[in-house]
Design goal:
55 residues, mainly alpha, 3 helices, 84% helix
Length: 55
């Protein structure tokens, strides 16, 4: 029983890391959503640091 619980915990932990977005992807998505709403200044604030870092 303990081995099953441990295996389940490891599997869930690994899947969390596999599907986690990076900070850059999250920031880009936030800028894209802002642009789609017509909030161009907000989109620029989200994207400018990415552009400056080369991401």
């Amino acid at each position: 029983m303990r081995i099953r619980l441990l295996s389940l915990a490891i599997l869930l932990g690994a899947s969390t890391f596999a599907f986690a977005q990076t900070d850059s992807e999250t920031q880009f998505a936030a800028g894209l959503a802002a642009k789609d709403r017509g909030h161009y200044a907000t989109a620029m604030r989200a994207w400018l640091p990415l552009a400056n870092s080369g991401s």
